[in-house]
Amino acid sequence: MSPPYDIISQEQQQELYNLHDFNVIRLILGKEFPGDGEYNNRYVRAAAFLHGWLRHKILLKDEKTAFYIYEQKFNFRGKMFSRLGFIGLLRLEDLGRGKVFPHEETYPRAKLDRLQLLRATNANLDSIFALYSDEKGKTAKALKQFMKKKPLLEAKDGEQTIHRIWRIDRKPSIAKIVQEMKDKAVFIADGHHRYEAALQYKNEQKLKNTKFTEGEAYNHAMMYFTPLEDQGLLILPIHRVVSNLVYFDPSRFEQDLSHHFEVIPYPATKKTVVKVRKKLLKDLEKAGVGKHAFGLYLGGNRYSLLTLRDERSVEEMVAEEKPKAWKNLDVTILHYVVFDRLLNIAQETEDKVTYTKSVDEAIKLVDEKGAAMAFILNPTKIEEIVAIASKLEKLPHKSTYFHPKLLSGLVLYQFEPNEKVED
User: Fold this and answer.
1) Strands 123-124 and 100-101
2) How many CB atoms within 10 Å of residue 123?
3) DSSP for 102-121, written as a single string
4) CA-CA distance, 83 to 88, in Å (whole number)?
5) Cα(139)–Cα(350) distance, rounded to whole angstroms?
6) Domains assigned to the chain
7) By three-state DSSP, how is residue 327 classified?
8) How far is 219 from 213, CA to CA, in rounded Å?
9) Vertex 164: Cα angle to 141 and 80 (nearest 5)
């Protein structure tokens, strides 16, 4: 098993390669070599590994149709959480034309990477992370009946998160869950590139197949479904670090900020910095309940809390025809008020802005790597995501980080080109 492919560094890739000959890294993020070409590349090798592992029974195909309950237990800031969901197949449909809603922009190169892997392996090697509403807890109740017995699989990852899987293979229980999920809206939390790749793959296969029926296996994608109401559904903020500014004057910048924000300094010394930062983070969280607030670090133990003075001023700055919920996102406000209006880097954020979910790393980039400033954000709220996605809009880049990530290698969905799936 391994973390998902999109958060693995080159060093971690090598570590996972060394960890075990049969680590799923060889499938989801294989190594690239100088001599790679059309007939020998990481996608072709992933397919060879997959078929070899199936042939040698390193991977076993379940004989029965099943859903898989997936529970994650984890510690966050000293508190234990449990997130519960299940893995199954979703019939693919064009985004925004039915019941499946994205919330994030995708990038052509990343989508092509997942498409090439799908073409080579005929497999979904990871679950797409999806959210649905289970207000009355009916689906959760159906899952919990099967959790009384020993899990089929249990694993602890490097961050000490416990991952557990149970199988649901009783036909009446499967039918009950299918019925319960039938007309529900599904919001993609993580895995937009894989969803779009699966959609393109389906369309390619459809063109080749003269007897297309909608029942083919490739009309579906493997999803992990978890309720919007789940207490363990944790969204972390993604902080912004700004570098490579020409002629930057911190004092002048603070002055400019004060036209749009109330700027409260949090003076610190080497001795008090840990305590001060802790207080700032606590106050930031409190301020974020009813207002738009950011923590700012300008280096040299210089911290401030920024609170937006007037929402209406942002509405005027955001020229796009976007829903109110989109205009009122913290990340939108930061982009338009600070990056665009004050720093004039709106068109250069790719070169000048680094993203991290770690406050410590953000501070370190300023102190040790010479970045100009770090903005500490509050997390995007789940209701904001739903409100924006329901209007067929996408959130700005790097708005959400669902924690913890799903573990790769727990359940795979491999299918034959002509295989059919019963609904």
Assistant:
1) unpaired
2) 19
3) --B---HHHHHHHHHHHHHH
4) 16
5) 41
6) 46-233+403-414 (no CATH), 238-378 (3.30.1760)
7) helix
8) 9
9) 80
Closest CA to 380 of 98, 106, 104, 99: 104
CA-to-CA separations, 332 to 61, 295, 349, in angstroms, rounded? 46, 16, 13
Q: Are strands 220-227 and 128-132 parallel, antiparallel or unpaired?
A: parallel
Q: H-type helices in 182-249, by residue range?
A: 192-208
Does residue 31 contact residue 42 with C-beta atoms inside 8 Å? Answer: yes
The pLDDT tens digits along the chain (423 residues) read 999 999 999 999 999 999 999 999 999 999 999 999 999 999 999 999 999 999 999 999 998 999 999 999 999 989 999 999 999 999 999 987 889 999 988 889 999 999 999 999 999 999 999 999 999 999 999 999 999 999 999 999 999 999 999 999 999 999 999 999 998 999 999 999 999 999 999 999 989 888 888 889 999 999 999 999 999 999 999 999 999 998 899 999 999 999 999 999 999 999 999 999 999 999 999 999 999 999 999 999 999 999 999 888 777 777 667 888 888 899 999 999 999 999 999 877 878 999 999 999 999 999 999 999 999 999 999 999 999 998 888 888 889 999 999 999 999 999 987 788 876
In the block, which residue shows the tokens 């727990």? 410
The dihedral region occupied by 84, where left means phi > 0, alpha psi between -120 and 50, and beta the remainder, is beta
The pairs formed by 113-118 with CB atoms below 8 angstroms and a separation of 24 or more are: 113/193, 114/193, 114/194, 114/197, 115/197, 115/200, 115/201, 116/43, 117/28, 117/43, 117/46, 117/197, 118/197, 118/198, 118/201
CA atoms within 13 A on the CB side of 11: 0
